[in-house]
Input
Amino acid sequence: MKKMFALALGILTAIGGFVDIGDLVTNAVVGSRFGLSLAWVVVLGVVGICVFAEMSGRVAAVSGRATFSLVRQRLGPRLGFVNLCGSVAVTALTYIAEIGGVALALELASSINAYLWIPVVGLLVWIVLWRVKFDIMENVFGLAGLALVVFGVSLWALKPDFASLATQALHPSVPATEGTPTYLYYAVALFGAAMTPYEVFFFSSGGIEEKWTAKDIPVMRSNVFVGFPLGGLISLAIAATSMLVLGSSGIDVESLGQVALPVVVALGKVGLIFALVGFFAATFGAACETGLSVGYSISQYFGWQWGKFVAPRRAARFHVVMLIATIMAVGVLLTTADPIKVTEYSVVFSAVALPLTYLPILVVANDTRYMGAHVNGRLANVLGSFYLVVILIASLAAIPLMVLTKAGQ
Amino acid sequence: MTGIPRTLEAKLQLLDHQVIDVHGEMVCMVDDLELRPDRRGHLHVTAILTGPGALGPRWGGRFGSWITAVWRRLREDADPVPGRIAWNVVTGVDSGIRLNCARADLAIEGLETWTAAHIVTRIPGAGHESDA
Output
């Protein structure tokens, strides 16, 4: 009974924790402009994150080493450092976007300007990083994030023609109103949003925070293989409702309010409350995860003690890194940077940085010296290699497409 | 625990590995190794070297000498030596290097000590593990 509860809790947390500001914004933008013609990218991205999250989780459970420790071990100090700089830059950008997202959610709920919320949000996130127990942090925000299921309910309430939705999703084509480069640019953005690198830094380091061993692998797998795809369904529901409500009226998504609009149209005020709770939980939870990930990766590269399982004074450098990152994120946002724009860039740069993260994981998961009996099977390797090719293409195409389409305009 | 194999492939099994103390806390990375030849000319690992003073020279090039120079300038002693962990405290080599002493006894964590004293312990709650 207790085991079942832990299993269910893990899966629910994975569903609620899957979506972050990048998924919210990108799916709403894509839904309003491209309908479901990019749904295949969400599916591709979700399968990809499952493959690599499982691999990094397994490596962490068996070897007791998190992703960045292994990145340095495999790539050596120099190449490892280049990797560290790229990954930390992208994760910090995502951190900025998430904190901005929390502020936008609070602005929607309170009508108090987001820029007044930003320092408050920064402080709250930092308090959680400093003081709140790891599993409580994960469970509270993951479960509250389940409120986003309201997008699925809205889709139902909007009574669309499901057959035509399915046709659109299964036979993707570039809409007449958009050019092919723009379509591809958003494909890359959506892929980056689904496979954001911080997710594996956080997932593998979280495994060590929770003291996983090889015995925990089945539970970890169920979280990944059930929770993530169900979380991906929320992404698709956001895109679908956005298409139905915003796409037909020609509204461009430029604010978090517009992301919530389909829910309001479908379910009214009650729906909006759920959407707001979901926005807050998803972005706040992801802000904590990205903030921690910045600390995790830098500490792991240098071999410093890290983690919430020891008192801050025993992991002083780790906490100082997170403190600096938080102050910097608040500072950047207070230059009146638009959080939605920051989010859009963060997902594209995530796509650029993907190979840095995923190649070393694939290499280590194949190392019998570490993994023993838990080394990658054939399926994991076939999928892993396939995704490495996809990731490489997305990474190389991201910047040229961004320049070519003026960031998707 | 695997113990220590008699022969090790230093580059693959030691360099850039996490060092872990007797309580399971993380100490540092193996940034470099101290090797001494015996009478027959075989090289033996005598110590783990760590910190910018060890990483800088191994890095090489302009960036490496810059790291070393900054590290030297920040040290109080005239001729600083890099952080050193004698090989005789090592008890095991697997995905990490395990020691039989505590990290505080090694006196190699300059930055950690400084940040702990000047920043972290001045914030309330620094001495407690995260709790609700």
User: Anything to note?
Assistant: The interface with chain A takes residues 15-19, 25-31, 50, 55, 58-59, 95-96, 103, 111-113, 115-116, 119-121, 123, 125-132 of chain B (CB under 8 Å). The domain at 10-122 of chain B is CATH 2.30.30.240 (SH3 type barrels.). The longest strand of chain B covers residues 43-50.
